UniProtKB/TrEMBL annotation:
<feature type="binding site">
    <location>
        <position position="134"/>
    </location>
    <ligand>
        <name>substrate</name>
    </ligand>
</feature>
<feature type="binding site">
    <location>
        <begin position="503"/>
        <end position="504"/>
    </location>
    <ligand>
        <name>substrate</name>
    </ligand>
</feature>
<feature type="binding site">
    <location>
        <position position="337"/>
    </location>
    <ligand>
        <name>ATP</name>
    </ligand>
</feature>
<dbReference type="InterPro" id="IPR014709">
    <property type="entry name" value="Glutathione_synthase_C_euk"/>
</dbReference>
<feature type="binding site">
    <location>
        <position position="158"/>
    </location>
    <ligand>
        <name>Mg(2+)</name>
    </ligand>
</feature>
<keyword id="KW-0547">Nucleotide-binding</keyword>
<feature type="binding site">
    <location>
        <position position="243"/>
    </location>
    <ligand>
        <name>substrate</name>
    </ligand>
</feature>
<dbReference type="InterPro" id="IPR004887">
    <property type="entry name" value="GSH_synth_subst-bd"/>
</dbReference>
<dbReference type="Pfam" id="PF03917">
    <property type="entry name" value="GSH_synth_ATP"/>
</dbReference>
<comment type="similarity">
    <text>Belongs to the eukaryotic GSH synthase family.</text>
</comment>
<dbReference type="InterPro" id="IPR014042">
    <property type="entry name" value="Glutathione_synthase_a-hlx"/>
</dbReference>
<feature type="binding site">
    <location>
        <begin position="160"/>
        <end position="163"/>
    </location>
    <ligand>
        <name>substrate</name>
    </ligand>
</feature>
<feature type="binding site">
    <location>
        <position position="403"/>
    </location>
    <ligand>
        <name>Mg(2+)</name>
    </ligand>
</feature>
<feature type="binding site">
    <location>
        <begin position="399"/>
        <end position="408"/>
    </location>
    <ligand>
        <name>ATP</name>
    </ligand>
</feature>
<dbReference type="GO" id="GO:0005524">
    <property type="term" value="F:ATP binding"/>
</dbReference>
<keyword id="KW-0436">Ligase</keyword>
<feature type="binding site">
    <location>
        <begin position="432"/>
        <end position="435"/>
    </location>
    <ligand>
        <name>ATP</name>
    </ligand>
</feature>
Amino acid sequence: MTNAVYPPYPPILTQAEQEYLLTNLKDWSITHGLAVRPTSAYVAEDLDPARALATTAPVTLFPSLFPRSCFDQARAVSQAYSELYSAIAADEEWLGEIVKELLEIDDFIENLWKVHLAVKKEGYAQSLQLGLFRSDYMVHVSDSDSDSRLSVKQVEFNTIASSFGGLSSQVASLHRYLHSVDAYPEVTSLLINDASLQSSGSVPQLASGLAKAHRAYVKSDKPNRPACVLFLVQDVERNVFDQRHLEYTLNTDHGVRTFRLAFSRVLQDTSLGHDRKLIYTPPSLSGKQWEVSVVYFRAGYAPTEYNSQRDWDARRHIERSAAIKCPGILTHLAGSKKVQQVLATPHSPHLARFLHDKSAADKLLATFAPIYPLDESEAGLEARKLATDPQMAQKYVLKPQREGGGNNIYRSEIPGFLQSLPKTKWPAYILMEMIEPPTQGNAIFRNGEVQSGEVICELGVYGACLWRDKVENGVVKGRGVLENFEAGYLLRTKGAGSSEGGVAAGFGSVDSCCLLDL
Ligand code: ADP
Ligand code: MG
């Protein structure tokens, strides 16, 4: 049934047509920074010891088809999602109750929470916070024949290091360019045309979010040194060009100075000055100093990045500082899968607490796929039955409180995995119904090779949100939203047979939407 959603696509190319398309794709991509550093499996480390090479990011040859109604639906809820998650991050009591359930069974969450408690004790030095969020969806096909046969269901909501905004704008431009130079055969013109190809404003919009936070800081905190935005990055970062697009736009369009700082160097290269202002001293610029307006986390979201107490000290150092954090630690915690589950468990009463506008809340509700706890609540016990039954488990995915890909357990592997785990650890996971998006044909160019076949797509919609926390007696109780706008989209596409979709994790590709009225 699901295979019939899309028309046959893409056309089969002659060898000459494919060569023409690929030559254009490769040259355009490198010229425009639609690029990544190669994996060592593709270019051996001894051939590129300085890690100076770049290669085309994994991309689809054709823009994938995507139902226009679903695209519109996902964009329409973007601001409400930012509203929701900023409200959760500003409701310490509610969030604390959820975190409490995880403390003893999840070290990482426990350590994040401890950082919050430590900073809370002396008082936060900054009440402004920036969220550059991304809400991810897949198309769900319902059995009913009604108008809403196709809708989007949310895979997850990212509150930290939401990546690929830089490359997403580029891949949409790439597909438009390929169309303009006739790389797509004439027969596709009913599908691929100027009206159906969808640009993504993610680069200008995400950069604008950072620039707005920077300006808000300059206005309210009156820096007495030049101010900069600090991109906090991983030591080895393949996806550096994705981040560079945002840096260059901040530089060119907003006149905002940016620096890149490896998470491992935070304590060496930054210090806290008067009023806990974060001072950055770049080792390359002989003693010159900048005051950090915004710390933009593109690192620090995975337990593997915290190898010693020093790494936790670095996280606390930043959280203590007066820089605006993107995100702050409560916002990071709000993005945990457990929060998503608490909101999306059928009949959950929680959404109404945060979204008072009933029609906005209903629109969000319609994007939730069923998610269950694995604790000893009624819903949890029911979920345990599903997860341990080899037949029933086929329809589910089991997720820990982690980000960044490669952590989930899928379908038939769930019962065996749970059996290998003490029951006391089960509540650290959530059980989510698999969304089964319709497949279509496409071809992915990755590591110099083309792979054609059936693919599935995941749409991400970015949102930028700047707010000011209200603190009463040392506890965060609510916030005032200063900016909230949708910030472009991302389409990621992977082989229909693969469970994970991470581009960086090595399973997927970046893509753009060719919208289709279905
Ligand atoms: P992470 O935080 O590691 O990115 P996700 O929840 O996004 O975790 O899961 C990783 C990938 O697994 C997704 O990009 C998607 O391809 C797949 N996936 C996760 N949940 C579902 C689901 N409910 N239905 C279908 N695929 C899913
Ligand atoms: Mg994800």
